[in-house]
Amino acid sequence: MRASEESDETLAMRAGGGDRLAAGVLIMRHTDKIFAVSFRMLQNRAAAEDVVQETFLRLWRHVGRWRPEGAKFETWLYKIAVNICVDKLRRRGREVPEDQALDLPDGSPRADEVLMDKDRNMQVWAAIALLPERQRLAIALCHYQELSNIEAAEIMDVSIEAIESLLARGRRFLRTKLLPQREHLIGGRRDEHSIIAN
Amino acid sequence: MSTQSSQTERAAIDAARRYLEVYGADLEKWPQAARTAYGDQIAHSALSQERSEANVLDELLRSASAPSADSALNTRLINNFDISQKRFLAKEWAEIFDPLSVFGRFVPASAAAMLVLLGGVLGLLTSSLTATSSQEFDTASYVEEAFTIAFVEDEEALLWVED
Fold first, then answer.
1. Greater model confidence, B58 or A120
2. B114 alpha carbon, distance to own chain's centre
3. In which domain, by residue range, is B148 found?
4. CA distance linking residue A170 with residue A172, whole number of Å
5. Gap between the Cα atoms of B102 and B81, Å rounded
6. Does a structural domain hold residue B68?
7. Rounded distance between C-alpha atoms, residue B89 and residue A197, angstroms
8. Which top CATH class is A1-95?
C-alpha cells in the first residue's frame, strides 16, 4: 500500500519511528485543516502558521507515545492546535482581522462584485471576531471544518449538549449582527443565487 | 387521536426549530439521527421564517472563506520534522552515554540526596572508628598504669636494697 493511502493512525506510528515519508503525508493531509481552524480562531495569517508549526512540533515530540486505541488521530491533532490557539488568544487578546484574510478566490469576474464580496466578507469576519472564544471555536469546528458534534465535543472537552448550546448562542449572535444588514450584504447576489429558499 | 397526533407534530416542529437554530438550514450539518427524525419538518410552514434566516446566515458564513496556507509552510514543517528527529536521536545517545541524564532536571536534587547519603555513611563509619580508638585508648592507659606501678615497685625494691 502506498503511504498516501494509509490511515492517519498507521502513518503516525511510522512517523513516530522516524519515517520521513509518513510524516510528509501527514503534513500534506492536515496542514490546511489546522491552518484554517487556527486562522478562524486568531484571524491572523502569521499567527495561524505559527500554530500549525507548533502543533506539528508537539506532534513529533509525542507521536512515539501515541497509541491508536485512544482518540482518533485527527481529533488529537485538532485538540493540540485548539489548545495552542486558546493559549495564544489568552496571552495576546483579540486580533484585528488582516487584509489578506479577505482575499477572495480567483474567478470573481467584475470589480464591483469583488468589492461587494470583500465588503461582505469583512463584515462577516468582523462579526465572527466579536464572538466569545468558545462560540467561535464551536462554529469553526462544526460549521467550517464540518466535524460532527461528537468530534467537536471531544476536541473542546465538553458534552454534546454544551456544543449545541455554544453553536446556538453563536449563531444567534451572528444573526443579530448580520441579518439587519442582509439587504446590503446579499442584495447584489440574490438574483444569481436566490439564497433564501422559501 | 387527532389531539395526540397534533401534539406529536408540534413536538417534531419544536425539535426541528431547535436543530435549525443549532446547525442551520443545511441538513448535511445536522446529526444523522436528527436528520432522519426531523429533517422533513423544516419544510413546514410554521418554520418558514426560521428556515429563511438560517439560510441567509449559512450563506453569509460560507462566504467568509479562510485563505490557504503559504505553500512554503509544508517545507518548513518537513524541516522541523528532520530537526526534531535529530534532537530525539541526540537525546537518546546522550542518555546511553550519560547515565545521569536520565535524572534530567532532577540532577541537582539527586546530587544533593547522594551527598546526604554519603554523609550518613561517613558519619556511621567515623562513629565506629571513634568507638574502636577509644577502646584502644583504654587498653593503652591500662598498660601504661601497670608499667608505672611495676616501675614504682621496682624502684622501692631498689631503695630497700640500697638501705
1. B58
2. 24
3. 107-162
4. 5
5. 24
6. no
7. 60
8. mainly alpha
Q: What burial class does residue A191 get, using C-beta atoms within 10 Å of its C-beta: 0-12 exposed, 13-18 middle, 19+ buried?
A: exposed
- Cα–chain center distance at A190: 27
Are A120 and B60 in contact (CB < 8 Å)?
A: yes
**CATH of segment(s) A99-198:** 1.10.10.10
* Residues of B with Cβ-Cβ distance to A175 under 8 angstroms: 53, 57
| Domain limits, chain A | 1-95, 99-198
| Signed CA dihedral, A71, A75, A81, A84: sign only | negative
> Domain count of chain B?
2
Q: Which chain A residue has the Cα nearest residue B34? A: A149
- Contact predicate A81/A37, CB 8 Å: yes
B55 and A197 within 8 Å at the Cβ level: the answer is yes
Dump pLDDT digits (tens) for B111-147: 788 889 999 898 888 877 666 666 665 666 665 666 5
> Is B89 a member of any domain?
no
Domain annotation covers residue B123 = yes
One domain, residues B6 and B58:
yes
| B-interface mutation test, from A119, A147, A149, most B Cβ less than 10 A away | A149
Question: Does B81 contact A20 at a Cβ distance shorter than 8 Å?
Answer: yes
State the Cα–Cα distance between residues A42 and A129, nearest whole angstrom.
8
pLDDT value of residue B124: 86
Alpha helices in chain B (DSSP H): 2-23, 32-38, 48-63, 72-97, 107-162
Residue B120 lies in a domain: yes
B69 touches chain A (CB under 8 A): yes
Angle at A163 between CA A43 and CA A138, to 5 degrees: 10
Give the whole-angstrom CA distance, residue B18 versus residue B11. Answer: 11
pTM (two decimals)? 0.69
C-alpha cell at A100: 489578506
Diameter of chain A by CA atoms? 56
In this complex, do B56 and A195 lie within 8 Å of one another by their Cβ atoms? yes
User: From CA A37, how far away is CA A29, in angstroms rounded?
Assistant: 14
**B81 with A27: Cβ contact below 8 A:** yes
